[in-house]
Amino acid sequence: MEIRNFSIIAHIDHGKSTLADRLLQATRAVSDRQQKEQLLDSMDLERERGITIKASAVTVHHQFEGTEYELNFIDTPGHVDFAYEVSRALTACEGALLIVDATQGVEAQTVANAYLAVENNLELIPVINKIDLPTADPDGVSMEVEQVLGLPAEDCLKCSAKTGEGIQELLDAICTRLPSPRKTESENPRALIFDSHYDDYRGVIVYFRVFDGTIRKGDKIRMMGTGRTFHVTELGRYTPFPVKVDSLGTAEGGYMVAAIKTLDDVRVGDTITLDSNPAEEPLPGYKEPTQMVFCDFYPATAGDGTKRGDFETLRDAIDRIHLNDASFTFETEHSEALGFGFRCGFLGLLHMDIIQERLEREGGVDVVQTAPTVSYMVDLTDGATVEIHNPSDLPDPSTVKAIREPIVKLEIICPNENIGDLMKLCDARRGTFKTQQYLSDTRQILDYELPLAEIIYDFYDKLKSITRGYGTMDYEIIGYREDNLAKVTILVNGMPVEALSLICHKSNAEQRSRAILVKLKKQIDRHQFEIPLQAAIGGKIIARESIKAVRKNVTAKCYGGDVTRKRKLLEKQKEGKRRMKTVGSVNIPQEAFMAVLEQE
After folding, report:
1. For the whole model, what pTM was predicted?
2. pLDDT of 64 over the 60 cut
């Protein structure tokens, strides 16, 4: 029996999950009765949003020219935030199907995923999908694939995952055009872990691909990275429903249960080997994912001040989700305004949004989420460098030599008529123009370098608005760069409020801080004395708003008479207000913090 291992990769919404459904149906892996749309997207959030969040591995069988082929394939996410899931899936494969929408053409993530596959030395089969649509242009899109990716237009397979047209030809091409698994390099068993998740009843379920030897039920295995040993109690594979097996041999993939208590015992990218006959060298793994967006989660309070989701409940909910998604990090944080919470790191904004929704659904806890920030590298005068994720952690300005911010390489694919507006948008966000490539008669590719901090707020929304939905973007971090950055401190009645401090470029510091002060002014009640709201960089005030004092009309009882009587009363009131200001404190309600901290 021949084996083929491949991934399905594409830009978001180009039909990967639907194509996976057709492959399952065409190979009789699922009956018509069991079939449903996006069968492999098992999470409620995946089905509601119509996107894939976690990669799914499946084994099916196909007969071609009298030979039976075992096809192991992985359906991967398309969104840029989950590119880490794609890179893990590709390492466990020898080939990939690159799906391109016949109506949309080559998009930003199509290019990014194709380069990922080439870096992993994978054989690519370009597939033009959705040829059944009236606006489909399969021949034009094939030429785009050749022009941008260098894959011959005649090699592109044309199919419709919706109607099933061309699926049999695709299965045959997978058997003939994708390479066989590489030959065994070690006599001792070695398997690569490419995913894992936590099950309340069986512990950690590990997904792996065997590269050398055989893993059997009952074996005592060792994780080469952590050195931990476990006894295999169950082996199986998804077809797409779990089927138990006694062993998994070279080039096969599946899942394993071995009474593993926590996800900390399993590292994605680690090598599994036999404890009694260990391999000498581990397989090349994955580099750890880098969290790029950070925000705080605090338990929300109800209007009457009672906690709707207290700190312990929030901790339990975060712990549970972290068991199934090790790519986000968290640590305890304390704010004077909002109490105890967590500082969390994410791969991107969609990842952050997904985690927050899972916390509220699966954890049953209401959370206050602060505005997202990025990590900064701070070079100190003593030669040391520290990484900070929160503006309030910035060291004393006198010890700071430079602040460096993350820079991304941004690739935008857009219609020709929108290039001018997009260039203006990128220039306004401190972008540096790199190159411009011709894609087709109607579309071009723009390459820019931008600070990540300028992208994470509303850049994607503005891009979609300018291009009327036809523009797409992909970005990757290329390093940290020094710029004219400063920490802006918000002062209320002369006292700094650390929870509201931010790091931004000096050119737009006044505009950003003015917006915060205007929000604060609407939320803080008037007191018996005037409250100054200020934004400062170091000792310099760059913006100010004032909340006027509540004043009693002390001259109301004076009818006519000498004007000095009124003056005396006003001076007395003025002196009282001045004395009150020196000893009075301003109560900032939690609603004020929530109004300022919520995403712009």
Report:
1. 0.70
2. yes
